[in-house]
């Protein structure tokens, strides 16, 4: 069982909401404040603020509709159901579907209240819900505000290093097919986690244009890092799915291909080190092949397609496609590394003074 900061903040927001609601409003109120707080602690400050605004607006809309329906049709289960339907339709039309649950709860509580003064009762309930939403936002903002930089880099670095180790093993035919299946599923799940954290980083609440510009620059680098790791996974997947074809490569061809990929993987690691300041800005220039060597290298694959993929058409197409798929995956990986290297070099030359939130080989580990 894991209790994180967000869970603790939710509990704190609920407690404070109930206390504040009972202090400001008549005794006995606090239920909607607690519900509002529990539904409003979001993973980023920006999302929390957007939720705060949306929920206040939706609660006002729901309260107005509820009071109007009670005066027009009185209170009954059918009236409550109709009111909820109308409110949901209005909120959907306003692109506020994410705040519908709390609005429906608010409407139900208002319309089930045994009081003749609908206006004051609805106003109190709306205020009560607003207290919970506001308290949740303030708690999320001031107490352990979400910081995803460290987790982001931890996921990126550990996934990259693990994938490169798996690639080295696959290149030397040291992996089990079933085990690598599981490893690829893990790697894809980690990339999904990376993308989720990247979106949260994009949603950071920044106050000044200078902060926003600096963060945007870093996000460009982070995005290209993620793409490089994703393409390394695609190359590993291509080798895995076409392992029989790769194992049938001529010895010299397989040796040259392995050396080429190991060069790219070494460059990948050193580009990350360059970003962390461990490698010189103008280093890692050994990835590119001379033009004549590149032409010969690529021609080697096409020659193998023509000579060693079987005599029947089906075998030729299937085997040839597998060979070209392996080559294409390696070229895509190489192109992305060149792009990443260029972007990191520019970033370090122009903005090396900006703080990097996570340092490679953190001394606290």
UniProtKB/TrEMBL annotation:
Broad class of the protein's primary localization: membrane
Q: Does the keyword Cell membrane apply?
A: yes
What UniProt keywords are attached to this protein's entry? Cell membrane, Membrane, Transmembrane, Transmembrane helix
Q: In which compartments does the protein localize?
A: Cell membrane
- Entry-linked InterPro entries: ArAE_1 (IPR010343)
Q: How does it sit in the membrane?
A: Multi-pass membrane protein
Question: Which parts of the chain span the membrane according to its record?
Answer: 12-36, 56-73, 85-112, 118-144
Transmembrane: present as a keyword of the record?
yes
Family matches, as Pfam families? ArAE_1 (PF06081)
Instruction: Kindly provide the name given to this protein in its UniProt entry.
Output: Aromatic acid exporter family protein
């Amino acid at each position: 069982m894991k209790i994180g900061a967000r869970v603790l903040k939710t509990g704190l927001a609920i407690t404070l909401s109930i206390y504040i609601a009972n202090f400001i409003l008549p005794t006995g109120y606090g239920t909607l404040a607690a519900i509002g707080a529990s539904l409003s602690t979001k993973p980023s400050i920006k999302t929390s603020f957007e939720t705060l605004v949306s929920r206040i607006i939706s609660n006002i809309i729901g309260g107005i509709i509820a009071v109007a329906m009670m005066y027009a049709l009185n209170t009954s289960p059918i009236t409550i159901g109709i009111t909820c339907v109308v409110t949901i339709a209005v909120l959907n039309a306003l692109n506020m579907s994410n705040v519908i649950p709390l609005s429906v709860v608010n409407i139900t509580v208002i319309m089930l209240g045994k009081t003749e003064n609908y206006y004051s009762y609805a106003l109190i309930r709306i205020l009560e819900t607003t207290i919970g939403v506001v308290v949740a936002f303030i708690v999320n903002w001031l107490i352990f505000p979400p910081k995803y930089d460290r987790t982001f880099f931890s996921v990126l670095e550990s996934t990259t290093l693990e994938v490169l180790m798996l690639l080295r093993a696959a290149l030397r035919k040291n992996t089990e097919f079933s085990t690598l299946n599981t490893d690829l599923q893990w790697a894809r799940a980690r990339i999904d986690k990376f993308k989720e954290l990247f979106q949260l980083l994009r949603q950071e609440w920044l106050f000044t244009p200078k902060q926003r510009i600096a963060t945007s620059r870093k996000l460009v680098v982070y995005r290209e890092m993620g793409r490089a790791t994703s393409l390394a996974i695609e190359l590993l997947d291509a080798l895995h799915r076409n392992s029989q074809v790769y194992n049938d490569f001529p010895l010299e061809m397989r040796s040259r291909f392995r050396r080429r990929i190991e060069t790219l993987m070494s460059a990948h690691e050193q580009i990350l080190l360059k970003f962390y300041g461990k490698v010189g800005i103008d280093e890692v220039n050994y990835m590119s092949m001379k033009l004549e060597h590149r032409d010969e290298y690529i021609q080697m694959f096409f020659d193998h397609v023509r000579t060693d993929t079987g005599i029947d058409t089906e075998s030729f197409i299937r085997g040839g496609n597998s060979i070209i798929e392996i080559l294409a995956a390696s070229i895509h990986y190489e192109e992305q590394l060149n792009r990443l290297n260029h972007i990191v070099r520019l970033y370090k030359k122009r903005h090396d003074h900006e703080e990097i939130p996570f340092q490679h080989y953190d001394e606290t580990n």
